[in-house]
Amino acid sequence: MQIVRFKSFQAVGIALLMLVCLAASPQRAAAQDAASFISSLGTRGLQALNPSIPRAQQEARFRQLLENNFDLAEISRFVLGSYARMMSPAAQQQFEPLFRDYLTQVYVTRLNRYSNVPFRVTGSRPSGGETVVTSEVSETGGQPVQLDWHVTNHSGRWLVNDVVVGGVSMKVTQRSEFASIIQRNGGQPNALVTVLRQQLAQSR
């Protein structure tokens, strides 16, 4: 009887272990898929910033990467915060394409220095409803710079919703910058559209 009871407990233990493994496997697989996605995206992104490519072409290539691989709708909502509700419908409609072009310029400018350095994914971990993929780029003679990519799975399609460069969230940085612009313009969020349009025109 004791042998039967022991075998029963052993069978239950094995079954529980299998359930735990089955529950954990999709999470590990999702993290691995996210890592592969970022490995490809990061490499293509830095290739798009090759110094031999004219700036206008760099921006065109990077804009396409943003449109296809970044959750621009979610990022737009985040950077506007509570000001989104105060914007007129017309300003909201104008903001989205302006913000996409603005993001393109920001990323191209800030990441351009890493265009000719090796890029590699160093790991991934689940974090709430998203996956954080860690990576690094190493400048010649300098310390490696860590880039953390926050990605979410949208029905089997991975999308980036933030990039943390050297510990600085680009999404949080943009939100703070836009809030400052709005505050300097009398707290009117519609003014952000005008400022973005002016900045983009000056940079061309």
In short:
With 204 residues, the protein is of the alpha+beta class.
What report would you give on this structure?
This protein is α+β, with helices and mostly antiparallel strands. It has one domain (about 1-204): Roll (Nuclear Transport Factor 2, Chain: A), CATH 3.10.450. Helix content is about 60%, strand content about 20%. It has a 5-stranded antiparallel β-sheet. A hairpin with a 5-residue loop joins strand 2 and strand 3 (about 145-155). Residues about 1-25 have low confidence and may be disordered.
List the helices and strands and how they pair.
Elements: H1 2-48, H2 55-69, H3 72-80, H4 89-111, E1 119-127, E2 130-138, E3 144-154, E4 157-165, E5 168-169, H5 170-184, H6 191-203
Antiparallel strand pairs: 1-2, 2-3, 3-4, 4-5
Helix pairs in contact: 1-2, 2-4, 3-5, 4-6
Please name the CATH architecture. Roll
- The level of helicity is 55-70%
Structural class: alpha+beta
- The side-by-side strand order for the widest beta sheet comes to 1-2-3-4-5
In oligomeric terms, what are we looking at? single chain
Number of domains: 1
Shape: globular
Q: Looking at this structure, what is the CATH superfamily?
A: Tgt2/MlaC
CA-atom Rg in angstroms: 22 Å
Order of helices and strands: HHHHEEEEEHH
**What is the end-to-end distance?**
84 Å
Unreliable spans: 1-27
Q: How many strands, what sense, and barrel or not for the largest sheet?
A: 5 strands, antiparallel
